[in-house]
Specification:
By secondary structure, the chain is an alpha/beta fold. It is 39% helix and 19% strand. It starts with 13 loop residues before the first strand and ends with a helix. Bound molecules: S-adenosyl-L-homocysteine (SAH). The site of S-adenosyl-L-homocysteine has 23 residues, from strand 1 and helix 2.
Length: 264
């Protein structure tokens, strides 16, 4: 499929490298009983490879109407095309079974898409796994662990609900048009058991407060969040002279629980 004017605003960088497409799709381990969801099928290069493995059903959400028309012509009734914005759809409405999700995501909204899924109560019931392409720097932030300078809000949110593994790095040359940035594919599997909190937005808020002042000692954000900050830091065994990057994801979840006990 040839696209004359790829839309920058929709993050259109289409994958053209067959080897990369093959590795991405193989990481899904699709069988005939699987329901697959593709985000932003674009020109359909991943789509075609996914279909060759004959999943039970393939849904694809694409915002661009022009592409929807072309994809319809190309794949006819082999796929279920949904002309929507991924940030606005509720996947449960069209599919109740756990899905395998693929997406060479539009980079300008990739973290919003990820956070949208992490907020879901039934993440592990709605989704089997995610194989997603991110801008390399964003992927590094997602997989970063404690004490790493890239560790932060995204790493904490992702590790709360998902097991994350790096699949491979992808050169800009594997896309058309060639993007300015390198890319990384991640495999994410929703955890069955995860630390219970009342509302993910509280964890987002807490990590925002801490990492907005990444270089300051944690006593400052603690004071912003808690009137009784000294008692909280003692109870949770937090060294108030540490920096935000020194606290484990579990500490942030424990802090979130304290915060929720206080406010709700
Ligand atoms: N998966 C394709 C295309 C990747 S480019 C490939 O690898 O070749 C990103 C795709 O996401 C484009 O097709 C773009 O139109 C689509 N897109 C951008 N924003 C979107 C949104 N909010 N919801 C759904 N699709 C979107």
């Amino acid at each position: 499929m040839i696209i004359k004017n790829p839309k920058k605003s929709l993050g259109q960088n289409f994958l053209t490298d067959k080897n990369i497409i093959d590795i991405i799709v193989r990481n899904g381990c699709i069988n005939e009983k699987d329901v697959v969801l593709e985000i932003g099928p674009g020109t359909g290069s991943l789509t075609e490879r996914i279909l060759s493995l004959k999943p039970l059903k393939l849904f694809a959400i694409e915002k661009d109407k022009t592409l929807i028309m072309k994809l319809n012509e190309k794949f006819k009734d082999k796929i279920n095309l949904i002309n929507e914005d991924i940030l606005k759809v509720d996947e449960k409405v069209f599919c109740k079974e756990p899905m395998i999700v693929f997406g060479n995501l539009p980079y300008n909204i990739s973290t919003q898409i990820l956070v949208k899924w992490i907020r879901l109560n039934n993440l592990n019931k709605n989704f089997k796994k995610f194989i997603l392409m991110f801008q390399k720097e964003v992927a590094e932030r997602i997989i970063a662990t404690t004490n790493n300078k890239k560790y932060g809000r995204l790493s904490i949110l992702a590790s709360w609900k998902m097991n994350v593994k790096k699949v491979l790095e992808v050169s800009p040359k594997s896309f058309y048009p060639v993007p300015k940035v390198k890319s990384t594919v991640l495999l994410m599997e929703p955890k069955k058991d995860f630390f219970p909190i009342k509302n993910p937005k509280n964890l987002e808020h807490i990590t925002n407060v801490f990492f907005n002042q990444r270089r300051k000692m944690v006593k400052h954000p603690l004071k912003i969040l808690f009137k009784n900050s000294e008692k909280i830091s003692k109870k949770l065994n937090i060294n108030i002279n540490d920096r935000p990057q020194n606290l484990s994801p579990l500490k942030y979840l424990e802090l979130c629980k304290e915060y929720e006990n206080l406010t709700f």
